[in-house]
From TrEMBL:
Name the UniProt record assigns to this protein: Molybdopterin-guanine dinucleotide biosynthesis protein B
Gene field: mobB
Molybdopterin-guanine dinucleotide biosynthesis protein B (MobB) domain residues: 3-135
InterPro entries xrefs: MGD_biosynthesis_adapter (IPR052539), MobB_dom (IPR004435), P-loop_NTPase (IPR027417)
Coiled-coil ranges from the UniProt annotation: none
PANTHER family in the record: MOLYBDOPTERIN-GUANINE DINUCLEOTIDE BIOSYNTHESIS ADAPTER PROTEIN, MOLYBDOPTERIN-GUANINE DINUCLEOTIDE BIOSYNTHESIS ADAPTER PROTEIN-RELATED
Origin species: Azospirillum oleiclasticum
Length: 168
């Protein structure tokens, strides 16, 4: 399974690019899964649901299955947050795992950067960033710069970088 990431500051457009990139890759015959880092706590379960009651009662893992999807929730309780490798190991293998976030992990990644966000470029301090996607000029980098609005160019780059060839 190839692993490639999108990273950048909040508000830069990572998620927008991700949801545009996935269908482009899938149309090329690539199976794609995603992993997203959330800095704050999050919940996909809600009070009043049986699965929520199971977790609140102390279950370490709760799996919810249906004819359309299944989800596994694992409570960390007092455990440390697992690292990227441990999370990847839990994923079903596909052609490409796209990771959003995890700025400082060493997987290859594309930085999404917009001057209007007002944050510095991460790439000069993060050697795992191999290119930048932006809506304008990107000062201070010798890395390839891709137009943020050209999803096909970004998909081409990701496929080359990961050594993938489409089947579709």
């Amino acid at each position: 399974m190839k692993v490639f990431g999108l990273t950048g500051w909040s508000g830069s457009g990572k998620t927008t690019l991700m949801v545009r990139l996935i269908p482009s890759l899938v149309a090329r015959g690539i199976t794609v899964s995603t992993m997203k880092h959330a800095h704050k706590g999050f919940d996909i379960d809600h009070p009043g649901k049986d699965s929520h009651s199971h977790r609140m009662a102390g279950a370490t893992e709760v799996l919810v299955g249906s004819p359309r999807r299944w989800a596994l929730m694992h409570e960390l309780r007092d455990e440390e947050e697992p690292g990227v490798e441990a999370l990847i190991a839990r994923m079903t293998p596909v052609d490409l795992l796209l990771i959003e976030g995890f700025k400082r992990h060493d997987h290859r990644k594309l930085e999404v950067w917009r001057a209007a966000v007002g944050k510095p470029l991460i790439a000069p301090e993060e050697p795992s960033i191999v290119a930048v996607a932006s809506d304008g000029p990107v000062p201070g980098t010798a890395l390839p710069v891709l137009p943020l609005d050209d999803v096909e160019a970004v998909a081409d780059f990701v496929m080359r970088e990961c050594g993938l060839t489409g089947r579709g």
